[in-house]
Task: structure prediction
Amino acid sequence: MLRLAVTGADGFLGWHLRVLLRALGWPEPVRLGRAELADPQRAGALLSGVDRVLHLAGVNRGEPDEVAAGNLRAAAQLAAGLRAATDPPAQVVYANSVQAGNGTGYGDAKAAAAQLLAGTGLPVDDVLLPNLYGEHGRPRYNSAVATFCRVLADGGQPEVHGDRELDLVHVTDAAARLAGVPAGGSWDPAMPALRIGVRELADRLAATAAAYRAGEIPPLRDRHDLRLFNTYRSHCFPTHYPLPLPRRGDARGELVETVKAHGGGGQTFCSSTHPGVTRGEHFHLAKVERFVVLRGSAEISLRRVGDTEVLRFPVTGDVPMAVDMPTMWVHKLVNTGDDELVTLFWTNELFDPARPDTWPEPVEATLPAQVAVSA
Result:
């Protein structure tokens, strides 16, 4: 277990890195933001004694000169802090880009930044990252995946102005590679890539959105299907929840279609919960988990890992609705009624006690700002 320092900890890659470390029980990394990097002595004090520094900070979008200058400035500031450290890290890990040195302002600046870090005399692991995608990416900034997902979640259709091939890597796999986390969970530090054209990507995500809009689970044939689905769901949450479920009734009673999964099985189970009792208090990195209250009343509470705001969904068996737990959100279910609560749960995979993808954490670890979400 290493003690890490991280630049860009609040960015897309940085947040996913911190969630992964939290799941594994690693110490919270030392975070160097703009203020710390701007002061070499302050940065040096923070860097002293850590095992490894991960340089994730960078600028991806903007005017070419500003993008280049931003990437060079961040690397130069970190290099100055490393020189000022009395006990510098044993290794620098640089989140570089496959575009490094490609003749663009961005690519050439990323390559020059690697040289600035190498100039400190410390060992530098220069990791060339392809296109990263994943939950809560910024549309029109982090990746085409985030842009397409947001457009689809808002009810639109992605526009493809030029087709080209992309190599897509899920951001948690990249985080595992940078942190030196071995394979063994839902992540893969080998960073297996999905090779796909932009138009094919748009069509694939549109099909995923169409199925999910109908309350159905799209085909989850491989790890990238699953992660693209989870990425799309992150752009739907919380606005599109709870999900109404198709109901059929006749003289005999009612039928509710709780899960319709295309091309996959998973695991379904049912629980009873006594009044006032809580279930959950954990999060998942990749697993899809659906809650449907069939009898009684409950409150489902969720908090994004690293945040304090808690979202609350009151649900009842009188009108069964589905709430799918977004990945990397801590969640729990509480019986708020006077009678027994009956809940159906569905996950996309069979439970494996050796790799449960269930990471304990209380929803209300701090005093959060509470936001109520009406069912």
